[in-house]
Amino acid sequence: MNISLTERANRYSKATQLVEVDSVVQFEIPMHPKHEFFVDFSDVRGEFEEKVVYKALNINPKDFTYNYKVNEDNKTLLFLAGMRGSGKTSELLKIIEKVNNENAFFCVFCSLDIGLDINDMEYMDILVFQLERLFQELEERKVEIGNDIIGAMQTWFSERINEVNHLIRQSEGFELEIKAGTPSLLSFIGVMAKVKSGLLGTRDNADKIRTVLKNNFSDFVLKINDFFNHVNDVLRQQNVAQELLFVVDGLEKVATKKERMEIVDNEAGRIRQVKINTIFTLPIELMYLQRKLEAFSTIVSFPFVKVKEQNGDVVQEAIKRFEEFVYKRIDISLFDKPETVQNAIIYSGGSPRELLRILEYANIYADDDKGFIDEIAMNKAIKKLASQSSQYISQEDLKHLKTLKENNEKGISTPFGKEWQDLLENRIIMEYNDGTYKRVNPLVEASELYQYHVG
Fold it and tell me: Which of 95, 119, 163, 226 has its CA 20 to 30 A from that of 394?
């Protein structure tokens, strides 16, 4: 478990006055299932079924156990694909809560935006970070790993650092300092921390580390697969878990689409060689790679919550679940009437993140003398966010949005096309069910630009 995520979430409790609202609508803080703010949306996500995730992981969904004997050569690589702000991280934390035990997995949560540089990241960085997080979890949970295999790994990485330093000397840069020590989890954590600090340093040094690891990848992947197998044996021997499970979250936060593409597409060959159970989040704009990825992985779509049907009917069960989501964070007395909250929910389009943004802005516009958020403040917030959401929509985009509106009015699905990818990435349109139902973001629909050109 990534402790920092839990610690950040635990700072917050329900707002009972306006001055406290801003702290409880922070959408970058995912909620652990045990937190008072947590709301389970899994049964209102259309065709998404949580048990599919457990089945893909070869977990028995009835008792959340894992049979390592029948899955000895059957490691799962699962991509959980969904739009940013759909609640993937909270869903993953819930999954971890259920399977992180002696009868299933030893879960290692890797939050890329906390551990790495989202402005400069490659797959080699992620793999190094996974190893660092594994060693930290093993040390924290006092799992005893034999020093022989740790020594072999430590020696290998020390040799690679020497290769990196040779390249650095040639360019007259600052070398990576590493101290030799008796092999142990703590000493190896130090080695991995040094490698990762090099990746987080100058771009030149980071590229040299990546080059050395890539040039030695065939040997590297053999070493880490052997190490993972050894750790799995130890976990079973010490009655800690049946096997390792890595959860790599935050790929959609990597700064550019090009870098996200290179990690998922260009490095697919290396990703598939790492033989350990792993869940990756997959940015929605890369879903068109589905056929390529399904050759060696499982893809599960994680959609927004559908608050309106394709014909415009409101989904009351989803509205009630979002009301729970709001009132767990903000006391009901801080709103003038239930309809004000319901209006915010409709305009969120079923995105928890969009709803929190709307509430954040409504709080900004709220009259402090009144002491609550009223319909006037909510309408101002929606108008402001509508303008922001539509600011960079092009003439070509508007043509696509018009097509989407017409298809939904006719009750027909909009076929896949790469022209939708940027619109999905930028949350101009939203996706539901298994991807067959798309609609324009309600905030975009509310904009003057959309109303004028599409209607």
Answer: 119
Enter the tokens of residue 333. 């007395």
Please compute Rg for the chain using Cα positions: 24
Dist. CA 453–CA 403, nearest whole Å? 12
d(CA 171, CA 55): 51
CA dist., res. 424 & res. 245, Å (int): 29
Digit-coded pLDDT (tens) for 278-337: 999 988 888 888 888 889 999 988 888 999 988 889 999 999 999 999 999 999 999 999
Neighbours of 69 (CB within 10 A): 6
Nearest CA among 267, 4, 272, 263 for reference residue 120: 263
Those residues whose C-beta lies under 8 Å from the C-beta of residue 429, and which sit 6 or more positions away, are 401, 404, 420, 423, 438, 439, 440, 441, 444
Region of 433 please: left (phi>0), alpha (psi -120 to 50) or beta: left
Which DSSP letter does residue 86 get? S
Contact 278, 245 (CB under 8 A): yes
pLDDT tens, residue by residue, 142-154: 999 888 888 888 8
Q: Element (H or E) spanning 99, and its range?
A: helix 88-99
Give the pLDDT mean for 270-280. Answer: 95
- Paired with 65 in beta bridges are 60
Residue 432 vs residues 164, 308, 401: alpha-carbon distances, Å: 47, 10, 16
Largest Cα span, the chain: 70
- Regarding pTM above 0.90, the answer is no
How far apart CA 319 and CA 57 sit, in angstroms, is 31
CA distances to 83, 134, 211, 432, 453 from 312, in Å: 22, 47, 53, 14, 20
DSSP assignments along 360-417, one per residue: HHHHHHSBTTTTBB-HHHHHHHHHHHHHHHTTT--HHHHHHHHHHHHHHHHT-PPPP-
DSSP string, 285-304: GGGGGHHHHTTTSEEEE-PP
